[in-house]
Design goal:
Elements (H helix, E strand, L loop, with lengths): L1 E2 L3 E5 L5 E13 L19 E14 L4 E13 L10 E12 L18 H11 L2 E13 L7 E16 L2 E12 H11 L13 E12 L2 E12 L8 E9 L2
Antiparallel strand pairs: 1-3, 2-3, 3-4, 4-5, 5-6, 7-8, 8-9, 9-10, 10-11, 11-12
Length: about 250
């Protein structure tokens, strides 16, 4: 597999010994995928294009001002989000040790003060981050495939109404009311569970839920982590709880 994954590193302390946590996400290309004739034992990955996620914990020890050594653990995940079956996914645990060197001179960036003239877009960004309350409507959609392998592909989508409140300078608490539609739920209810198709409309397969979360702000980039529970759901084979992890960019 080949990946390109931007990452954000959080240093947990200052000084010579600096533990850190790194989160990464990006696209991935997998060379050898499932094939009925030539690679039928591969139940992990069914498509060449996938999503890559990684969580990493390191201990960094500074040797000189620009040189450091490190050791750490990471967990990487590859899957296509059920866009194409099979999609058991690949999880890779890694132990690493190494050394690094920072080129160039050290520059300390100070926050823009009220007396400093900033560009118009930077000023707008500051105003958004300083808002006590923020409101958003978020629409998303995609496709998924269910078993058997090579079966039909269904549309999925969600509409969320989110409100967030400023916590610290670069953090916010958030909550949302979510509406989900998964066209494969109708198929599962009728053919797997045995619902009467004449008494069941596709609108009834929608799911409604409430979620709470925490948002981290890094300039124009925001990382939002949410945990929710379904208030209404006829199809609950995946449980009553759901999670949402989003990476957002404000243009």
């Amino acid at each position: 597999s080949y990946t390109i994954h931007p990452f954000i590193k959080f240093y947990l302390s200052k000084g010579r010994f600096r533990p850190s946590v790194t989160a990464a996400a990006g696209p991935a290309y997998v060379e050898k995928t499932f094939d009925r004739k030539t690679n039928y034992k591969n139940a992990a990955i069914g498509s060449h294009v996938n999503a890559f996620l990684q969580l990493q914990a390191d201990l960094n020890v500074r040797v000189t001002y620009n040189t450091y050594v490190f050791a750490g653990l990471s967990l990487s995940h590859l899957s296509n989000g059920s866009y194409k079956k099979p999609n058991a996914g690949v999880n890779i645990a890694t132990v690493k040790i190494g050394a690094g060197y920072n080129f160039g001179e050290v520059k300390i960036h100070k926050p823009v003060s009220s007396t400093t003239t900033a560009r118009l877009d930077d000023a707008r960004l500051e105003r958004v981050n300083e808002q006590t309350w923020s409101y958003r409507a978020i629409l998303s959609g995609g496709l998924k495939e269910i078993s058997p392998i090579g079966g039909s592909r269904y549309g999925v989508g969600s509409l969320s109404f989110e409100v967030s409140r400023k916590h610290l300078t670069y953090t916010r608490f958030s909550g949302s009311f979510d509406m989900f539609y998964d066209a494969s739920d109708y198929h599962a209810l009728v053919y797997d569970i045995g619902y009467d198709s004449e008494g069941l409309s596709k609108l009834q397969t929608m799911k409604l839920g409430l979620a709470a979360g925490y948002e981290l702000l890094f300039g124009r980039v925001a990382v939002n982590l949410q945990l929710g529970a379904y208030l209404y759901a006829k199809q609950t084979s995946e449980g009553r709880l759901y999670q949402r992890y989003t990476l957002r960019y404000m243009p």
